[in-house]
UniProtKB/TrEMBL annotation:
This is GGDEF domain-containing protein. Keywords: Antiviral defense, Nucleotide-binding. GO terms for biological process: defense response to virus. InterPro entries: Cas10-Cmr2_palm2, Cmr2_N, CRISPR-assoc_Cmr2_N, GGDEF_dom, Rev_trsase/Diguanyl_cyclase. Residues 378-510 form the GGDEF domain. GO terms for molecular function: nucleotide binding. Coiled coil: none annotated.
Length: 670
């Protein structure tokens, strides 16, 4: 019998659990809970005398807290993956990991049950709501592992590769089945959860026939939340009905500090208030505008009208680098014209709600006029990053080199995102999930990629180094988070990795659930720098007009674009765009106002080419990956859609003032 047992273990669901989110805090809570449960499993291995081989976790704060009980500040951001490889002493099996995870999960669920659900359990239509709760909690997580038998002459790198292969095969053999709630609860056992539709919501009533009783149950849950927090509007929205796992995910951050510490062994950041309040998607959208008006004298009138109401973002500013002052405490919906008019997105709970709303709308319009920088933006950015072919790098360089890469890179992630006024949702190993404002997202992604490449060079020397890919989704603040995250995974895997060969940045725009055609290019291509410049406002909007492509498409037609489609003629293409740019400018401006009016035609063309050069770079998509033909980048006219978008979303680029024509139909269906 071997002295040690090798095994690889995973905890699922992951993407579904994280993505089943109505609000920003749900996104964080899902990621944090998964890291915390992984920490429970890893700590069980170490307490049994075993070793975590991959990833290296000895310095991880969650592991140190679970093993030693103190010595570090409890982390606010999760950093442990849902999968790990470990060794256990002979006679000890991986079952100890499953027991540790289930025990911790039950303890946390019990804390949420006792505070919020148990006092109102008799209002449920289920004869025994406690049994329903227990069944849903017990059956939620799938914890799968594979014991890796020893092979003579095999080194550690080969064993790790074989472990990964075995786990992938194990996942094809699904042995975890959700409880049959139709069998145990009956077909009349209420509606399905609105976040996790595989489970029943807890009232046990069907809305079609017992809406009042259903509302009474969930109204009582909201009252329980209000008794603890003093407010409840954003913790559980009107009409929101959840199952046990979704309610644990939603409400565990609102537990009193003593109850939270007893449930998970610490309070993240030693500040329970900080994890209760996370910037909303609307807040992240209007953040660049808030930075421009914060602490200015003209905001005082607006602050006086709002008073102590609508300060639902009071803790949001703590997650950001900017000092926004008093205006940073206000609900982000106050600054958006359409959101303020929407009674569902922005409810006002008093008898004169209509008059109050009209006064707020008038005050907001006055504030926008006083600021003089146009309307706040409507979109924010979600950034998702993932290392490329890490398994191959692990087999080549070994676990210690990869662990060093992950540790060095991970130490830079949270502070880099914060420096760009973003919020880090998860940063573990080669994975990053963050929310940022539109102007900051691409610049932040590029800086993170630079940190990755530097860390890879230090960890792996002159040999082959793993790359990293990213997806940036510019999403309207009203689009459900689960759709945005799902699209981010599609763009990362399908466009940046499989479509463009990896080592790439891909982007997409979501408006009301509709997607644009994605943009993608290899990180070092000139187009990525141009893309970041347009997004941040570094490049002037005059070169961003999609009317240039409109002119080319309308004047010369699709054959011209086809001529430049495969690269190799960028000098001619640049000249053609510059000439179109000059024609547009001379048409739109009087001769005396046109820049360079006293210059020769050739001199004006030279200036125009310099102005148009970032646009030419952006229109070229360079493939990534080893062996790619980067000397013949593809032409993507749809890139102009992003320029139009950036112009409208920029501070000073009011949605009501910026009129940039659509890209012409080029005849190829784009």
């Amino acid at each position: 019998m071997p002295e040690q047992t090798w095994f690889i273990l995973s905890i699922t669901p992951v993407q579904e659990f994280v993505g089943q989110a109505r609000r920003t805090r749900d996104l964080w809570a899902g990621s944090y809970l998964l890291s915390w449960l992984s920490a429970q499993a890893m700590a069980a291995v170490k307490k049994a005398g075993g070793e975590i081989v991959m990833p290296q976790v000895d310095d991880d704060p969650m592991i140190r807290l679970l093993i030693h009980g103190n010595g570090v500040t409890p982390p606010v951001v999760g950093s442990l993956p849902n999968q790990f490889t470990a060794r256990l002493p002979a006679g000890v099996g991986p079952e100890i990991c499953r027991e540790a995870v289930q025990r911790a999960w039950r303890k946390l669920a019990e804390a949420v049950w006792c505070k919020f659900v148990e006092p109102v359990r008799k209002l449920s239509n289920f004869p025994d709501l406690s049994a329903v709760w227990t069944q849903q909690i017990k059956g939620f997580w799938e914890i799968a592992w594979v014991v890796v038998p020893p092979v003579d002459g095999e080194d550690e790198r080969q064993t790790l590769k074989r472990a990964g292969d075995l786990l992938r095969r194990r996942k094809l053999w699904r042995s975890h089945l959700l409880p049959d709630e139709y069998a145990t609860l009956g077909r009349e056992g209420g509606d399905h959860c609105q976040l996790m539709p595989d489970w029943r919501e807890l009232s046990g009533y069907a809305r079609a026939s017992h809406a009042d009783a259903q509302d009474a149950f969930w109204g009582s849950i909201r009252d329980q939340i209000g008794m603890i927090l003093g407010h409840n509007a954003i913790e559980l929205a009107q009409g929101e009905r959840l199952c046990a796992p979704a309610l644990v995910k939603r409400l565990f951050p609102t537990l009193p500090a003593c109850a939270l510490k007893n449930a998970i062994d610490w309070v993240p950041g030693n500040d329970s208030g900080r994890i209760r309040s996370w910037p909303s998607t609307r807040y992240m959208a209007v953040l660049p505008w808030l930075r421009r008006v914060a602490n200015k004298p003209f905001i005082d009138r607006f602050l006086d009208l709002v008073g102590n109401d609508f300060q639902t973002e009071s803790g949001s500013a703590a997650h950001l680098a900017s000092d926004l002052g008093e205006i940073g405490r206000l609900d982000g919906n106050l600054f958006d014209r359409d959101a303020l008019r929407n009674t569902k997105d922005f409810p006002i709970a008093n008898d004169d709600a209509g008059d109050r709303r009209r006064k707020l709308e008038a005050a907001r319009a006055e504030l926008v006029t006083a600021a003089g920088i146009g309307e706040p933006a409507t979109h924010y950015a979600l950034l998702l990053m993932d290392g490329d072919r890490i398994g191959e790098a692990l087999a080549q360089a070994g676990p210690r080199a990869i662990a060093t890469l992950f540790e060095t890179f991970g130490a830079q992630v949270t502070q880099t995102i914060r420096r760009h006024d973003g919020i880090c949702i998860y940063a573990g190993g080669d994975d990053v999930l963050a929310l940022l404002s539109v102007p900051d997202a691409v610049t932040c992604a590029r800086e993170l990629r630079q940190h990755w490449m530097k860390a890879a060079g230090e960890a792996m020397g002159e040999g082959s180094r793993p790359t990293i890919s990213a997806a940036v989704i510019f999403a309207e603040a009203t689009v459900p988070l689960r759709l945005v995250l799902a699209r981010a995974h599609e763009v990362l895997d399908g466009v940046a990795k499989n479509g463009n060969g990896r080592d790439s940045l891909a982007a997409d725009i979501i408006r009301g659930g509709d997607f644009t055609r994605s943009w993608v290019s290899q990180w070092d291509a000139p187009g990525v720098e141009a893309f970041a410049g347009f997004a941040s406002g570094q490049h002037a909007p005059l070169a961003a007009s999609s009317g240039l492509l409109h002119a080319i498409g309308g004047r010369f037609g699709a054959p011209v674009l086809d001529l430049f489609a495969d690269g190799g003629h960028d000098d001619d293409f640049e000249r053609l765009l510059a000439q179109a740019h000059l024609r547009n400018r001379s048409r739109d401006l009087p001769a005396m106002d046109a820049p360079g009016g006293d210059l020769s035609e050739e001199e004006r063309l030279k200036i125009a080419r310099e102005e148009i050069r970032p646009l030419v770079a952006l229109l070229r998509e360079v493939p990534g990956g080893a062996g790619a033909r980067r000397d013949r980048p593809r032409l993507n006219p749809d890139a102009a859609l992003f320029l139009r978008f950036f112009a409208r979303q920029s501070v000073g680029g009011s949605r009501s003032q910026v009129l940039i024509p659509d890209v012409a139909d080029t005849g190829d269906g784009r």
